[in-house]
């Protein structure tokens, strides 16, 4: 018997555990009735009487939802027999279950003896523990209506815990709380005992004044300790988290301030880089302008030289065409001269050479050959037939000298004399002389055609010289133009390289400017943030200092709060 929270059920369960008894209780609900309770009791009889299981039947006054339950409990405590609980079949089953035990005990196995043996066994193995509260009139009324509750039970009265017990219990649980000095822990334990006992004293005055009962039970005291432990841990964690959050914010502001200073330094360095990049870019622009001017000048000079070369090329082409036309006119004459030589052979020349006194026309032909081929333009004085025969000498050598005759470089005096003294004679032609001698006719045709060719060559030679000079000038101009073009290409390549460098320098400059602008924006935003949080920084530091003070008083603050929550509510 004790007020709620005194530890009645806990002590009963502890005792059952020590003795090795199985604790059985009922779970009541809104539909739990008499039949359910009878089934629970029948199960207890079965465990204790049939299975020989030590059982503790634990029941509280809150589980007595119907007063009929007390009728069964009264019979159980008084005699061990409960009216109308067992059917005849149940009795037979129980008796048969203990028959062997009864015989072993030397008892005659009649039904009456078997039943008595079974009931005695139930009394021996079944213990009933009733947990009642003395508060109110119910306990007094039930004790009067059901005398077995008083006469057939042993009363264990649960009184209030003494001061020493309260202090000892609280100290035991307070040891689980870290970061508390032993002296402080002892003071907390004494304060908790003081709160519990003063609340009990106040409850007496409260009952006397208002006729209302308030109980301060050991359970209330244990709940105070549990609430204090949980609330202290929670408040410590909240305080720690809030302090860390504020300290983190203060650290972030300090870091941001340091970062702003670093950003300012970086910004100055980046601005120097930007200025250098701008100077490099401007220098490249000036250099490119100068190089382009040189290139334009070289291109203009090259254009003038190219025009001169084109003009020279036109002149050379005209000279070439004119010379080609003149030489084209000389080609038939050369062909006739070669044909005349081809008509000569060793036999015909031998025949010509064998003439003793040839015709005057034949002598003139040989004389004309002697004059035309005179070495160095020295015309021989003796142009007689005998001199002519000596001139022809070896026929093969003579014919070969005519074939290899340098027709382009004949002395002019020789040609003039041949034309004046011989070709001007109407009878000096191949057709006429052929009647005198075939070989002389061939020589005549050769002399006439060679002289004609020479006159044409006289006209062509200066032109060819001019053409050669023009070609030389053209080659020189082309070489000069090639040099100018190479120089222009080199200059253009330099300009292209400079333009590429300018493009890269411009990109580097723009990148440096963008980075500097980005850094400036970050520094500006960070500075604005720091300025905006300066007041918060001050307030946070003050709050952190206040939290340090709160941390020192938190043990007492939580103790007062837990005491009020645990005990002051009913008042």
From TrEMBL:
**What does the UniProt entry say about where the protein is found?**
Cytoplasm, Cytoskeleton, Cilium axoneme
Q: Give me the Gene Ontology terms describing cellular component.
A: axoneme; dynein complex; microtubule
Q: Which residues are the signal sequence here? A: none
Establish whether keyword Calcium is in the entry: no
Under the heading Pfam families, the entry gives: AAA_8, MT
Q: Which residues form a coiled coil?
A: 229-280, 467-515
Tell me the superkingdom of the source: Eukaryota
Concerning InterPro entries, the annotation shows: DHC, Dynein_HC_stalk, Dynein_heavy_chain_D4_dom, P-loop_NTPase
Q: Where is the Dynein heavy chain coiled coil stalk domain?
A: 244-571
Its keywords, alphabetically, are:
ATP-binding, Cell projection, Cilium, Coiled coil, Cytoplasm, Cytoskeleton, Dynein, Flagellum, Microtubule, Motor protein, Nucleotide-binding
Tell me where in this chain the Dynein heavy chain AAA module D4 domain is found: 1-231
Q: Which GO terms describe its molecular function?
A: ATP binding; dynein intermediate chain binding; dynein light intermediate chain binding
| One Gene Ontology term from the biological process aspect of the record | microtubule-based movement
Family of the protein in this entry: Belongs to the dynein heavy chain family.
Please give the name of this protein: Flagellar outer dynein arm heavy chain beta
**Which organism is this entry from?**
Tetraselmis sp. GSL018
